[in-house]
UniProtKB/TrEMBL annotation:
One of its GO terms (molecular function) is DNA binding. Residues 12-61 form the HTH cro/C1-type domain. PROSITE patterns: HTH_CROC1 (PS50943). This is Helix-turn-helix transcriptional regulator. InterPro entries: Cro/C1-type_HTH, Lambda_DNA-bd_dom_sf.
Length: 69
């Protein structure tokens, strides 16, 4: 499973979900879906913009874990 760890980066940048959504150009609902690990996919262009805004690498917000299924 791929997890999206936006909480730490948002805290580090002292940024809210609303601010991130505005700067990235997607809805607050879509940022929340990512943040709560309910997204099935993410466009590279969206990931790139999130990384630009948060000044981070994709590996700073994406984490792979083995499913227990």
């Amino acid at each position: 499973m791929i997890k999206v760890n936006l909480d730490f980066m948002l805290l580090k940048k002292k940024m809210t979900v609303v601010e991130l959504a505005e700067k990235v150009g997607i809805t607050q609902a879509n940022i929340s879906i990512l943040k709560n690990n309910r997204a099935k996919a993410i466009r590279f262009s969206t990931l790139e913009k999130i990384c630009q805004v948060l000044e981070c690498q994709p590996g700073d917000i994406l984490e792979y874990t083995v499913d227990d299924e």
